[in-house]
Specification:
Blueprint (H helix, E strand, L loop, with lengths): L4 H17 L2 H7 L3 H7 L4 H4 L7 H26 L1 H17 L2 H7 L11 H14 L4 E4 L2 E6 H18 L6 H18 L2 H8 L3
Antiparallel strand pairs: 1-2
Helix pairs in contact: 1-2, 1-5, 5-6, 5-8, 6-8, 6-10, 8-10, 9-10
């Protein structure tokens, strides 16, 4: 059985993150630093941040989420669009990582102290694309080991992230999570608008 795009992303991210966790100078080269993007033209940071993580727990949480939900969505896209589905999935992940930087960039482009890292925004894009694609899917959170329908969990997650973003001072880039999640929803609507109609019909 051929290795999938999800597995390749997980392996690559784990390898680079492991190196960066043990080499802070290397990690600093990958960080998303809006100030450096704006004032030093270090545009590569808009995407490179998805390859490094703060610690192993940060890495493991993101990669487990990506492995299960990303693997599911990758298969669904390939089953629906055949070889084109692979490109859709790659575009979703990469663009989700970029979308996650939009809110932080405009808030912090003149703040030389702001830094962020991790694949959370890209993973959020995949998670919410999956939720819109298959809202009846049953998901579980690590700290709530009870199956919850995706269409229920999704709005709850967005509300928590929005509240946390407004509250601030958590040290977590909630705005990046929201940016990625919103992009994931938009992406599915762009490739299949009927998915949005099907999601809304659940509540009727």
């Amino acid at each position: 059985m051929a290795i999938g795009i999800t597995e390749i992303i997980v392996i690559l991210t784990c390898l680079i993150s492991w190196q960066a966790i043990n080499n802070l100078d290397l990690r600093d080269q990958f960080l998303f630093v809006p100030y450096a993007v704006k004032h030093n033209n270090e545009f590569y940071r808009i995407l490179s941040h998805v390859l490094v993580h703060a610690d192993f727990s940060h890495l493991v949480f993101n990669m487990i989420s990506l492995f299960y939900l990303g693997g599911y969505l990758e298969a669904e896209l390939i089953n629906t669009y055949e070889s084109v589905g692979i490109y859709y999935y790659i575009i979703l992940y990469i663009s989700g990582g970029v979308a996650a930087t939009v809110f932080p960039y405009f808030k912090n482009s003149d703040n030389p102290m702001y830094r962020s890292l991790g694949a959370s925004g890209a993973v959020s894009a995949v998670i919410f694309a999956t939720i819109l694609w298959e809202p009846q899917l049953e998901l579980m959170l690590m700290f709530i080991p009870i199956p919850i329908k995706a269409y229920v969990l999704g709005p709850i997650y967005l509300a928590i992230e929005y509240y946390s973003m407004r509250k601030g001072a958590s040290g977590i880039a909630h705005d990046a999570h929201l940016g990625g999640a919103l992009f994931g929803i938009l992406f599915v609507l762009l490739i299949d608008a009927n998915k949005g109609i099907e999601f809304l019909n659940i509540f009727q």
